[in-house]
Amino acid sequence: MSYEVVIGLEVHLQLKTKTKAFCACSTEFGKEPNTQVCPVCLGFPGSLPVFNKTVLDYAIKVALALNCKVQEYTKFDRKNYFYPDLPKNYQISQFDLPLSSNGFIDIVSEGIEKRIGITRVHIEEDAGKLIHQDDLSLIDFNRTGIPLLEIVSEPDISSAQESHDYLSTLKNILEYLDVSDCDMEKGTLRCDANISLRPIGSKNLGVKTELKNMNSFKGVKDALNYEIQRQSALLDLNEALTQETRLWDPKASKTFTMRTKEGAKDYRYFPEPDLPPFIIKVDKISEIKASIPELPKEKMQRFISDYGISEYDSKVLVASKRDAFFAEECIKAYPNKDKKAIVNWFIGPLLSEANNRAKALADLGISIENLLSLVTFVEREEISHLSAKAVLTEVLDSAKSPEEIIREKNLIQVSDSGAIKNIMEEVIKENAKSVLDYKAGKSNALMFLVGQVMRKSGGKTNPKIVQELLKTRLGDA
Predict the structure, then answer these.
(1) Is 101 in the same domain as 139?
(2) Domain range for residue 361?
(3) What is the pLDDT of residues 17-37, one digit of tens each?
């Protein structure tokens, strides 16, 4: 490609406060349409907004976690535009004096670490929701006035994959802060993307397109990849690009024009007359900073240093706050100094079960005691790893302990050499060619013989002991 891709992302985060940003209406999701509204959020004449203190606290917490500078002096503004789901015909937002600015987060994309700047984090209120049905549109105002944070990145992102990795990293941090559900399906985390292309080596930005209607990280990635191809094809033909807003159609896998993009002047910003400016004291900022929990990057580094876990395994374990907490409780309870065995269970069988059941690790329902009991059976070589995975599945599907299932199914491995030798002799007689192959230097033949012994024993013989006994019997002790 002869063009450089320039991407900036605008993430809208719905805060999980009990009430809306400027009124006492509930923010509970899924209620009957237009039942969580009042004169303030519907913009009735004479109604006045009252700012929700928790919104400010959550906003400062997010800003600090994203390494932003929190302004001591900030204010609200009216962003004026006309749309059916905006009952006041303006949105209370922030323009020239946002809550915070000049932050960053570090991401790893395709093995390369990169710092992405955060232009600003500011507070605003949400609009309502339009529901399109056949030849009509319905409006649900329940979402109107729900508190949002807009997190705007610098145009530091250079590919669709980097955008995906930025969003994943950002979401992980926000989940640890516990200020939002971060659920894209419910709309509590939404993303718009601004993308332009320019000739490689050029310092001037190209004509920007804003992409909307992307309800998953994959959707963002797919929409950006499509837009890169569309814009580069037009530029190759020397056709002019128009600054516009385009919608992503996931079914057709393409974008289409929604409207010509407005600029700041089109919104006719002016200071919100019903809300005074805010002075945020340094003590307030310090107090909130002290309440920020250990974030994913710091937790990952601690897992590496405290437990000797690899960087890859640590990154998997901290991908979810609740999963990381559950994993650490199990790691602490695991008696061996080397934690690799218990970590392997999380990265392997437990993660596989979680993916198959579309659940988080912490929601699988296995207790620490049952997990450690199962791992111990394997470490004592009383059951095979294959049997242990089957036992894990049954533990998750029932209220039984690993020990109960192992006893019921008679899964304890045969380690008695006398019993194993009897089976081994039968296998040697039945597989003379494999014996000759092994003696001729074909090491795979030995593993074939081990497998035959395991088959004859119904998987109950200890494979390590079988292998050693076969080596001795065949003259390669």
Answers:
(1) yes
(2) 296-408
(3) 999 999 999 999 989 999 999
